[in-house]
Amino acid sequence: MAKVLLKQENMCNYLRKLVWKYCILANDLVHCKVDNTKEEVVVCALYILVGILALLAGVALGFFIARKYMMSYFKKNPPINEQMLKMMMMQMGMKPSQKKINQMMKAMNSQIK
Hints:
The chain is an all-alpha fold and 113 residues long. It has helices spanning 2-31, 38-76, 82-91, 98-112.
């Protein structure tokens, strides 16, 4: 138990030093000064955190917009039609009946919705 706590404490210290280092670096680039107070570093850390959160929100929003666009595109322009199904069934050695084709098209359309 003591080893686990020691490892967690070491990890926390390492992360604190890492964040401190990058905040000082970012603050130096923005303000061009070397002596930073803890408040300036905390503000810098918040800027970095907000930037990362904004990036993640943009990725998630972009994913859902792209997904909605693709779903509507496939609804308007299905990747396969009845003629293609008929040809595929004939190539597989099956005799395509209109009933089978309708069942397959219905199943594919239900997956798109």
